[in-house]
Every structure is written in structure tokens, then in C-alpha cells.
Specification:
The chain has 226 residues and is α/β, with parallel strands linked by helices. Helices cover 40% and strands 22% of the residues. The protein has 2 domains: 4-122, Response regulator (Rossmann fold), CATH 3.40.50; 132-224, Winged helix-like DNA-binding domain superfamily/Winged helix DNA-binding domain (Arc Repressor Mutant, subunit A, Orthogonal Bundle). It contains 8 helices and 12 strands. The strands form 3 sheets. A 5-stranded parallel beta sheet has the order 2-1-3-4-5, sandwiched between helices.
């Protein structure tokens, strides 16, 4: 199956460079130069991944990210954010809004392609394990990317879902931050331990009272209660 990727950026050179690089890797690529156009394309045909510029002329990339994560149809679509900024604060804000990865301009087309490939390959944290995970009232349907807590569906991003699946596959066992980074983000993704902590904080908030089932093992990592 050919993956569909939508690139949203207001710089024509970036759009063309990204489109060419991703097309050469075998992806079906669509482009949009404004936030409104990007959202319209997403709603018309759901992409498998979105490469999203943070600074757009009409709607900010952070607002688009927030809109996607609040949509039942688009909440699970992975997002790679592009920005000319290198400040760590911007990266953390993007992750807190639900971005799956972050690339700072100027960037290498090969680097972007590797990140896209890693996210699409890993999907929701890999294909290992049963189709359904069920512990303490938390149920994950891996194939359908659905999380249900006490009969209520919870919308999770691809990375949040991947983290929860990784923990629930090994209840009672501590998962180090290094292992979670490798399993959910991939070894070719340049992210830090703080990335795991940021996503875990959001995951716990979304799970509500069930978030208490995820224990922090100080200095080591995380564990889903047995």
C-alpha cells in the first residue's frame, strides 16, 4: 500500500523539495501552502502522515495540530512539525499539542525521509503482540487504534498509543526511557528522554483516573501496574 503524505508549508521551495524527496521514496504526496487549504485536504481525504510547518500565513501550525488532535477522523494521523526555530520551548510546545516528531529548518531531505519512514513503519509502536490488550479497565485495539477506558473511548496520538501499548504488553515490568524511545520512535530518530516524559504526561492526563496505573520509577522509566 502506498502511503499518502500531506505537506503544509508556505515556502514554495520547501514544498517542492519535500514533495520531490518523498515522491522519490515511493510516497503519494499532496501539498498545501496555507493552513486552511491543508485542513480542507485532510478532511477531503485522510492522509497517513502530515508534515506541518509551524509558521503559516493564516492558521498557525500549532492550531492545526490542536484541531487535528480534537477531531475523531484525524486524531490518529502522525504529525511531523517543521519550523525555522531551534528553541527547545517550541519543540516541547509542539509535542504537548500532540506532534509526533519535530524537524528544524534548514533540514536534510534524507533526514526527513528517515523520520517519515520510521513513524510509518512503527505506526502505533510496532506490530508485535496481541490485537487486543486489556488491563484494569483499559482496553487497546491495536489494529483499529482505539483506546477505551471504562467503556469510554479516549483519543490518543500515534506516539501516546505506542507508549501505552508498550507498557501494557509488559505489565509489572519497568520500561526504561531508552527502550521506549527505541520502540516507539525508532533508533534513527534524534529525540531525548524529556520527549518520553512530555508524551507520558499527556497520556496520563487523557487517561484520567486510569493514568494512575502508570507508575514512574524514578531515574529508570515507567511501568504499567500488574
Amino acid at each position: 500500500m502506498t502511503h499518502r503524505i500531506l505537506v503544509v508549508d508556505d515556502e514554495p521551495d520547501i514544498l517542492e523539495l519535500t514533495r520531490f524527496a518523498l515522491t522519490r521514496e515511493g510516497y503519494q504526496v499532496e501539498t498545501a501552502s496555507t493552513g486552511d487549504e491543508g485542513l480542507a485536504r485532510m478532511r477531503r481525504a485522510r492522509p497517513d502522515l502530515v508534515v506541518l510547518d509551524l509558521m503559516l500565513p493564516d492558521v498557525s501550525g500549532t492550531e492545526i495540530c490542536r484541531t487535528m488532535r480534537g477531531s475523531s477522523d484525524l486524531s490518529g494521523v502522525p504529525i511531523i512539525m517543521l519550523t525555522a526555530r531551534s528553541d527547545e520551548v517550541d519543540r516541547i510546545v509542539g509535542f504537548e499539542l500532540g506532534a509526533d516528531d519535530y524537524v528544524t529548518k534548514p533540514f536534510s531531505p534524507r533526514e526527513l525521509c528517515l523520520r517519515v519512514k520510521a513513524i510509518l513503519r512503527r505506526g502505533v509502536g510496532g506490530e508485535v503482540g496481541p490485537e487486543h490488550l486489556d488491563h484494569h479497565g483499559v482496553t487497546l485495539d491495536i489494529d483499529r487504534h482505539r483506546c477505551v477506558v471504562d467503556d469510554e473511548e479516549i483519543k490518543l496520538t500515534a506516539k501516546e498509543f505506542g507508549l501505552l501499548a508498550s507498557l501494557m504488553r509488559r505489565p509489572g515490568r519497568v520500561q526504561t526511557r531508552e527502550r521506549l524511545l527505541e520502540e516507539v520512535w525508532g533508533t534513527d530518530i534524534n529525540v531525548t528522554h524529556r520527549t518520553v516524559d512530555t508524551h507520558m504526561k499527556r497520556l496520563r492526563e487523557k487517561l484520567g483516573s486510569a493514568g494512575d496505573l502508570i507508575d514512574t520509577v524514578r531515574g529508570v522509566g515507567y511501568r504499567f501496574r500488574e
